[in-house]
Design brief:
Blueprint lengths: L1 H7 L2 H7 L4 H13 L6 H10 L1 H9 L4 E4 L2 H11 L4 E4 L20 E4 L8 H11 L3 E4 L7 H13 L3 E4 L4 H10 L2 E4 L8 H8 L3 E5 L5 H4 L4 E3 L4 H13 L14 H21 L4 H5 L1
Parallel strand pairs: 1-2, 3-4, 3-6, 4-5, 6-7, 7-8
Helix pairs in contact: 3-4, 4-5, 7-12
Length: 288
C-alpha cells in the first residue's frame, strides 16, 4: 500500500499524495467519500482524527475471532495490528469453467480479469504486452475514481488491434476466458488471495501474479510470482518465463470447489458458536 501510495496514483490524487502520508491521505479520502453518504460521516471523521490504521487496530481489539483467507493474513493481523484473538482459516474458492468465450479473439493471448484501477496496475501489463508483442484481453469495469487509467486504456484499445477490453461480461463468459487464455497475469501492487488466480489455475491456465499476496499458499510452484519492485522489466521476464512452462496441474482442484469452501465456512461458524456458548461474555463481546 505504501508503494501504491507513492508511485501509482494519478491526477489530483497523485498531487495530494505527494504531500501526505498514506494514513493522512486515506483519512481524508474516507471523509470525502462519506460526504455523499451522511450515515458514514461520523465514522469517517473518527478515522481521520484517529488515523485509519489505529482505528482498525481498535476495532480488532473488540473482536474475538477472525476468518482469514491465508496463514500469512493471520500473521499480518498479529504483527501489523496486534490482534490476539482466534483466527480460523477459511480458504478462497474458484468456480469450474463452462461455456464458450467471446468470439473473435486470437488463438493465444494474455488475460487480466479485474477492475481497471491503480492497484491492479493494468497499464503496466499493457506496456509489457506491447513490448513482447502479445495480444492482451482485459476484463472488468473501470474504477470511476481512476479516470486517467480508464481514458488511457480506452485510447489503447482504439489504437491497437492487440488489446481487447470487455467492461462487462456474464460470469460464464469470464470463466470461459480463463480457460481459453494462454496466461492470466495479475500485476497488482497488493492483494490477499485473488480469486482470479485460482480460477485460472483450476482451468489449467498459466498464472503470473503478485508477490504482494498469499496466492503461493494455494498454488505453490504452479504459478509464477512477480515482485512489483522489479517493475515492468521484471514483469516482462516473468511472463516470458511462464509462457515457456507447462500449464499448471493442481493435485487437488476440488479443494477450491465452493462446496468444500462452504463447508469450511460453516464449520468455522459452528466452532465460534460453540466457543461463545461455553465462555462467559467478555468485555469485547459486549462492546461488539
Amino acid at each position: 500500500m505504501e508503494e501504491l501510495h507513492r508511485e501509482a496514483r494519478a491526477g489530483l490524487a497523485k498531487a495530494v499524495a505527494t504531500h501526505l502520508s498514506l494514513e493522512r491521505f486515506e483519512g481524508l479520502r474516507g471523509v470525502a467519500l462519506a460526504s455523499r453518504q451522511p450515515d458514514q460521516l461520523r465514522e469517517a471523521t473518527r478515522q481521520l482524527l484517529t488515523g485509519p490504521r489505529r482505528r482498525q487496530a481498535q476495532l480488532l481489539r473488540q473482536v474475538d475471532s477472525c476468518l482469514t483467507l491465508a496463514e500469512g493474513e493471520r500473521v499480518s493481523l498479529q504483527q501489523d495490528f496486534g490482534f490476539t484473538g482466534t483466527s480460523l482459516l477459511v480458504p478462497n474458492g474458484a468456480s469450474e469453467h463452462e461455456g464458450d468465450p467471446p468470439g473473435g479473439l486470437p488463438r493465444e493471448f494474455l488475460l487480466c480479469v479485474g477492475r481497471l484501477e491503480a492497484r491492479k496496475n493494468q497499464l503496466a501489463l499493457a506496456n509489457v504486452a506491447e513490448r513482447l508483442d502479445l495480444p492482451l484481453v482485459l476484463v472488468g469495469p473501470f474504477n470511476r475514481r481512476h479516470k486517467r487509467i480508464s481514458e488511457e486504456i480506452q485510447r489503447r484499445v482504439r489504437e491497437s488491434s492487440r488489446i481487447s477490453w470487455f467492461p462487462q461480461l456474464p460470469r460464464h463468459r469470464v470463466l470461459a476466458l480463463q480457460r481459453a487464455a494462454t496466461c492470466h497475469v495479475l500485476p497488482s501492487w497488493c492483494e490477499v488471495v485473488p480469486q482470479v488466480d485460482l480460477e485460472a489455475a483450476r482451468a489449467g491456465t498459466r498464472v503470473v501474479t503478485t508477490t504482494r499476496g498469499h496466492t503461493d499458499e494455494y498454488l505453490g510452484d504452479q504459478a509464477t510470482y512477480w515482485d512489483p519492485a522489479s517493475r515492468e522489466r521484471g514483469l516482462a521476464c516473468a511472463v516470458e518465463r511462464t509462457l515457456e512452462q507447462a500449464p499448471p496441474q493442481l493435485t487437488d482442484p476440488d479443494a477450491l470447489s465452493w462446496e468444500r469452501v462452504g463447508q469450511r465456512l460453516l464449520d468455522s461458524y459452528r466452532a465460534i458458536s460453540v466457543t461463545a456458548a461455553e465462555e462467559p461474555p467478555s468485555r469485547s463481546t459486549a462492546e461488539v
